[in-house]
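REQUEST ID: PR-0412
SUBMITTED BY: lab tech R.K.
PRIORITY: routine
TASK: structure prediction, single protein chain
INPUT:
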Amino acid sequence: MPREYALDRFERQIREGLLGTGWIQPEEITLLPPPPEIPGDLGMPCFLLARRLRRAPGAIAQELSGRLSFPDGSLVGRVFAQGPYLNFCQEPQAMARAVLAEVREWGDRYGGDDIGAGRNVIIDYSSPNVARRMHIGHIRSTVIGQALRNLYDFLGYRTIGDNHLGDWGTQFGKLIYAYKAWGDEQEMERRPIDHLVELYARFHREAQGDPALEEEGRRWFARLEAGDPEARALWQRFLDLTIQEFEKTYRRLGVRFDLYRGESFYEPMLEDAIREAVEKGAAYQAPDSPAVVLDLTEDGLGSTLLRKSDGATLYLTRELATALHRYREYDPVWILYVVGAEQELHFRQLRRLLERMGYAELASRCVHVSFGTIVKPDGSRFSMREGEVIFLDELLDEAEARALAIVEQKNPVLSEEEKREIARQVGIG
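STATUS: complete
OUTPUT:
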């Protein structure tokens, strides 16, 4: 049973009082916040009653206000009619006592509920790329996702925070080659992500003069896909070091995850997902080609691929396999994807594909929680290639530094520890 708070009881007592008049049927009771010019807490428009009783709604509101009475100790105070509305005010002292009693009883769980008990919600948020630093673009998915998680936790759901990392692809073959050719172990220990970024950038510079390096990168990725022990060990090390660095940032933000399941986790499931889509008629095999086509033009969603002609899979393929696995493992009531608005078409295609495959219930549970793009003052987007990226840790450092300067100016008598703690709370939250 959902927890009943004082405001819930206030509404229940109003409904009981209205039904007690003998005039009103349950389905005719609609309680809403009254218009701003009416000084009440809840109001009931009397238009439905007016239609049935063939009387003016204002006259009905006026008569009901005289008929209603509530016992001592009720949370309902003044009742009055104004125009076509019957309005109800809280009894201030009774409401205050009720709320304080609830706060004392439930403590830090006040405001929470158990309506989600026994039900799972998966929240997919943050999702940076391995061997890359998090930048300003990651902050929205990260903090919005954690806020949603906090809310669902508070409502009694079992929330599963999943950081769907970008941890697979040919770039890791290139990175393995670069590390073996130019890697510095001391730099890997001291500043792992920065060193990996430098190695990847060097690979591309060197490959401009030596195209054979691209083939070396593909060869190392093929070895990684085949489970080669050396390639696998290096990839796992890059992954572990990256997550360690990410977690430092997440701790600063108060963000936590249950799973770090990147694209690599779902790689073995891709062919089964493609095969199922084809067998169910949701997609089709292109003639004389390994390509698998998903044609959604009739739905206004364009045409795309689940497998390219060279055998490579796409983002949508990996999302399909991920959604099916989550559904089968957790049976979630919701899967929330906290991802930018630019991916709207992608998630509409995913939901329609699932419907075509017979997973209409799963499709209805997949919700894209979108947000906009951070842009420069002139409205243009930041360019990674032009070096305009703002790294997330540097942004947090700057926020703390600015807050600390204000604290030192306003409260110079505080200890250094107190100043820094206030600066952290103000700068980051």
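NOTES: The chain is about 50% helix and 10% strand.
REVIEWED BY: pending
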